[in-house]
């Protein structure tokens, strides 16, 4: 039966069970945090049980021992706070303890149900979320080379087999017959080879595209986004294409209205996954470097204008 159970676990490799896999992995990653949460809860209940046994152990069977008191307190904090006969415990203890029990009951209930339970929930969710993000980033890193190869070969095939638009015909005019044949052979051969050989073919095809100075216009790129194969690869690479109109503007860094193959490839690979701390730090360091360069340039300009040449130009 265990062997059959492990066989069922293998089905989670399929894409349709992605959500189930995420829940199962999240539960496994949060087990340690959940275990420590249970320990913390038991310690708090144990301490309160000692107090309740001292005050109410002689009058109520539910608090006669520390173990019975812990079980009773757990029931009070989670579900039914009743005696073995079905009477509400807070009312019975209030008749004996009065105002002091009332204050203590409110404080303990707020501490455990509002404070401790929410703290446990927050720590558990934070732990699961971090583990899921780390696992997702690792998966993106492991599949980076495979995704790059797929995108390179797809770009080579799309450019080599353009649509009937004028922009596509103009782009094909930059290809010689020899380049077209090489691209066709590389794309056909790559479908039948292993991953390492596919990578070599993809690099060679992409090198040919760069040498031909191919540029992809907005119209061509929008046509590609309507292709199911192109969309499928972007979806598998975790590239968000929900706003397809703005995607070209995001990738067009120099605002030239066209995308080079290198610009398109690096842009799509950079869009994979969620924004991470590394992305933010990278931008911060780049901005600092640019600021330092601008300050250095400003100082150089000031030194030139205040030097002998600057003085002569002002006199002239």
At a glance:
Helix 3 (31-56) runs antiparallel to helix 6 (99-142), helix 7 (144-160) packs across helix 10 and helix 9 packs antiparallel against helix 10. Helices cover 76% and strands 1% of the residues.
Q: How much is the average pLDDT? A: 78
Q: Mind summarizing the main beta sheet? A: 2 strands, antiparallel
**Hey, roughly how much beta strand do the residues contain?**
under 5%
Helix content: over 70%
- The tally of beta strands, per DSSP, is 2
Uncertain runs? 164-169
How are helices and strands ordered from N to C? Answer: HHHHHHHHHHEHHHEHHH
> What is the rounded distance between the termini?
97 Å
Strand neighbour order, sheet with most strands: 1-2
Q: Characterize the overall form.
A: elongated
> What is the count of helical runs?
16
Radius of gyration: 33 Å
Q: What structural class should be given to the helix and strand makeup?
A: mainly alpha
